[in-house]
Structure formats: structure tokens, C-alpha cells
């Protein structure tokens, strides 16, 4: 059990991998985002997006999933420090982190509509 700084990049990468694995195993919202992200990638392939549309779509998927993982990390720290007892600052911190995820998800959804609607109209 290590509590000191990582000694080399391989150790750092292994711990980052542990973090991603923990997020997928324990966070339902992260799993949900991964499913939606996979469906969006399939839809992008089906719609033959342009190179720059692919870049935007992949960036947005990465941003939403990263924000979800950051939200979960903040929740873990808050639960650790409050021992799950009520505190108005804990509420503010958790609500703001959740707000960040929602804001990004809404922006991603609107951007997705702007990208996909012309392709869908052309197809049908
Ligand atoms: N220690 C606390 N003190 C005050 N309010 C809290 C505390 N823990 C949780 N809450 C409130 O409960 C809400 C939900 O808690 P929490 O974020 O832990 O659950 P969650 O279901 O994992 O949320 P999310 O869907 O955002 O991942 C928070 O947004 C906050 O308003």
C-alpha cells in the first residue's frame, strides 16, 4: 500500500489505470456515459462524419466522461472528510460538481444535434 509520490511514469500510469477501473466498477453514471459514448461512436461511423466532426464528437465524449470521473473523485473526497454527515459546504461542493457534469452534457447534446441533424436529414 503506497502513500508516497510515484517514483516513475509506469507507476503513475498503473495508478491512473486503477482509477479508471475503479470508476467503471463503482460508478453507475460512468458506465452509463460509456454506453452512450459507444452508441454515439457507432452513429458517427454510420453517418460518415467528416474528420473535424469526428474530432469534436470524440473530444465531447472524452470531456463528459472525464467530468463524470472528476465528479466521482470529488464525491469520494467529500464523503471521506465529512464521514457522510450533513454539511452545507459538502452540499455546495457536490451540487456544483454535479452542475459541471450537467452543463457539459447539455452542451455536448446540443453540439451533437448540430452535427448529426444534417447527416440524418440527408439519409432519410
Ligand atoms: N455530506 C453531505 N452534506 C450535505 N449534502 C450532501 C452530503 N452528501 C450528499 N449530499 C447531497 O446529496 C446529493 C447526492 O449525493 P451524492 O452526490 O453523494 O450522490 P450521487 O447519487 O452519487 O450523485 P450523482 O448522481 O451526482 O453522482 C448531493 O448533490 C448533495 O446535495
Automatic annotation (TrEMBL):
Transmembrane segments: 30-48, 54-78, 99-121
Main localization category: membrane
Cofactor annotation comment: Mn(2+), Zn(2+), Cd(2+) and Co(2+) support activity to lesser extents.
Cofactor: Mg(2+)
NADP is among the record's keywords: no
GO CC annotations, alphabetized: plasma membrane
Protein name in UniProt: Diacylglycerol kinase
Family (UniProt): Belongs to the bacterial diacylglycerol kinase family.
Binding annotation for substrate: 68
Annotated keywords: ATP-binding, Cell membrane, Kinase, Lipid biosynthesis, Lipid metabolism, Magnesium, Membrane, Metal-binding, Nucleotide-binding, Phospholipid biosynthesis, Phospholipid metabolism, Transferase, Transmembrane, Transmembrane helix
Matching PANTHER family: DIACYLGLYCEROL KINASE (PTHR34299:SF1)
Classification via Pfam families: DAGK_prokar (PF01219)
Topology relative to the membrane: Multi-pass membrane protein
Catalytic machinery residues: 68
Gene3D superfamilies: 1.10.287.3610
GO-annotated molecular function: ATP binding; kinase activity; metal ion binding
Binding-site residues for a divalent metal cation, renumbered to this chain: 27, 75
Binding site for ATP: 27, 75, 85-87, 94-95
Subcellular location per the Swiss-Prot or TrEMBL entry: Cell membrane
Origin superkingdom: Bacteria
Gene Ontology biological process terms, A to Z: phospholipid biosynthetic process
